[in-house]
Write a structure and sequence with these properties.
Number of strands: 12
Number of domains: 4
Radius of gyration: 46 Å
Distance between the termini: 63 Å
Shape: rod-shaped
Structural class: alpha+beta
Strand content: 5-15%
Order of helices and strands: HHHHHHEEHHHEEEHHEHEEHEEHEE
Strand order of the largest sheet: 2-1-5-4-3
Largest sheet: 5 strands, antiparallel
Length: 558
């Protein structure tokens, strides 16, 4: 199964390539150790064979047996001395192996000579030494060991023919024995090379598989969709960060019971098993804590006792994606009809300017023309804000004093809404509230909130009242602006949706006002939220972040 997440947000790095210096050194030390143990065991076995019984049938005399034991004893001492040099690493590992093979060939050739020559059967002992050398040393050294063994056998045979009459065997036997040494050396060399190539390939495949496993885990952990793998006992095998968030279990780990972490999934899972979960499609929502999850199931085998793979999709994320598609379409629509709104609007504004210059306009008509021009300008600002919102243009911030600016805003709002005059109240701290914001965006936010307040803020037949209260948060020192109305407030069922686009409880509304207000607030580094409660139930709070605050340098009216 995939590895457990380590919580890191960086992508998986490549593992170290096999065959590094440390790894090669470890393998060489291990080979030397096994060679030492093998040689020591073989020397002890030969010493035992040449000692018991006392009279050796293959030796010519008791003196030869004593000489053989002396040779084996000295050979054993050289082996022990070589074992002590393994830890010292001097001489080098390759030289230690070469010396060991040379000593073995020499000792085994002497034993073969004492036993009667090439016909004694002990000529296979040098072959064993050649095979060991070919396995441990790559390249031409394997042929060098075979050559030395062949030369030793031929020298022994020549010496026996010249000086020892009791020796058996011929040059043909010695030559065949030499050919055997070369054959086993070549065979051992080829097999060892192929084994090492296979080992290196397996090591590379192991690295690739480990990297692929880490890459898969990296991708799965960063998927927006929750992924949960369970075994036949419904215990977790794998879950990503999105699944932990949707299940409300940030500390969940493989081995935990899924149904103990999310009991709401039990009924859904059992129902899916009863309905034969052959597909991964399911339209039923599961409420897990505060999250609405759309799960789907895929069995990991033909039997229902096998594991399963559960995908968890956040319903709110799906709705958000659908809303983004709608907003993208809305952005294209507003861009296409912007000139159809602005061209007539510019004509209206121009006509209002011409009328204002007429000598026959009295004071009342001039006031009406002023209202017309301000509202035309506001419509133009609204269209511009929607276009900016769809294009995500940066806010153009200016320095203002919020207390002074709110009074000007309230006067303008009362002029544009005479029926609301006297019912809009501004309450601010006595100290300046310096900000750096886009006053166009801030005005659109407050106009939207005030319109909602006057529209929904009536209670018991009494006219709605709206209050703009600005000040500093006593704990963090942040500047906050609350828009309060005298209405009953937003119902608990609608509080989570009021800032979603196209959501409205009014038959005449578009459902974009609060969404645009929140987007404009975020574009200016502000946070818009509904808090409710208090004597005036409808309460929206606008908190200005550090980027929107500046050090007071005097009041600056908008």
């Amino acid at each position: 199964m995939p590895l457990r997440s380590n919580g890191m947000d960086q992508p998986p790095a490549q593992l170290a390539a096999p065959g590094g210096a440390a790894q090669r050194a470890f393998r060489a030390d291990s080979a030397l150790t096994w060679l030492f143990l093998y040689r020591l065991l073989l020397a002890a076995l030969l010493l035992f064979l040449f000692s018991y019984p006392a009279e050796q049938p293959w030796l010519g005399s008791a003196a030869d047996a004593g000489v053989a034991r002396v040779i084996l004893g000295l050979h054993g001492l050289t082996i022990l001395a070589g074992g002590l040099l393994i830890g010292a690493q001097r001489p080098s590992r390759a030289h230690q192996i070469q010396v060991a093979i040379f000593l073995d060939i020499t000792a085994y050739t002497l034993l073969m000579h004492l036993a009667g020559g090439v016909a004694s059967g002990l000529g296979l002992l040098p072959a064993i030494a050649v095979i060991v050398g070919a396995i441990l040393m790559e390249g031409r050294l394997s042929l060098l060991f075979a050559s030395l063994a062949t030369l030793a056998v031929m020298t022994q045979q020549l010496y026996s023919q010249l000086y020892v009459d009791t020796q058996s065997g011929t040059y043909t036997q010695a030559g065949l024995l030499g050919l055997t040494y070369f054959a086993v050396a070549l065979l051992a060399h080829v097999m060892t090379r192929r084994l090492r190539e296979t080992e290196r390939l397996a090591a590379r495949r192991k690295v690739d598989i480990a990297d692929l496993s880490r890459l898969n885990e990296y991708v799965i952990q960063r998927m927006a969709m929750g992924v949960v793998a369970i075994d036949g006992e419904r215990r977790l095998l794998l879950l990503n960060n999105a699944a932990r968030r949707l299940l409300g279990a940030p500390d969940a780990q493989p081995g935990d019971s899924l149904f103990l972490l999310a009991p709401a999934l039990r009924d859904w899972f059992l129902a899916r098993l009863r309905d034969d979960a052959d597909t991964d499609q399911d339209d039923s929502l599961v409420q897990i804590g505060d999250n609405e999850v759309l799960p789907s199931l895929t069995l990991l085998g033909d039997s229902r006792v096998n594991g399963a793979l559960i995908y968890l999709r956040d319903q709110r994320e799906l709705v958000r994606q659908a809303q983004e598609m709608k907003l993208a379409a809305l952005g294209r629509l507003t861009a296409s009809i912007a000139h159809n709104i602005r061209n007539p609007l510019s004509s209206v504004t121009h006509a209002a300017q011409l009328l204002a210059e007429s000598e026959h306009i009295d004071e009342a008509d001039a006031n009406l023309l002023g209202i017309l021009r301000r509202n035309a300008l506001r419509i133009d600002e609204t269209v511009t804000s929607i276009l900016d919102l769809s294009r995500r243009h940066a806010a153009e911030r200016t320095d203002i004093d919020l207390a002074t600016w709110l009074k000007d805003f309230a006067d303008e709002y009362a002029d544009n809404h005479p029926d609301c005059a006297g019912r809009l109240r501004v309450v601010t701290d006595a100290t300046p509230l310096p900000l750096r914001v886009d006053v166009r965006h801030l005005g659109q936010i407050l106009r939207n909130l005030c319109d909602n307040g006057f529209k929904h803020g009536s209670r018991g037949g009494a006219p709605a009242r709206v209050e703009l209260r600005a000040g500093r948060d006593g704990r963090a020192g942040m500047i906050q602006l609350e828009v309060r109305d005298s209405g009953p407030g937003v119902t608990p069922d609608n509080r989570r949706q009021i800032f979603e686009p196209f959501f409205t409880t009014s038959t005449s509304g578009t459902g974009l006002g609060l969404y645009i207000a929140r987007e404009l607030a975020e574009a200016n580094g502000m946070r818009l939220e509904y808090i409710g409660g208090g004597p005036m139930e409808g309460r929206f709070r606008l908190t200005f972040g550090p980027n929107g605050m500046r050090r007071p340098t005097g009041n600056a009216a908008a």
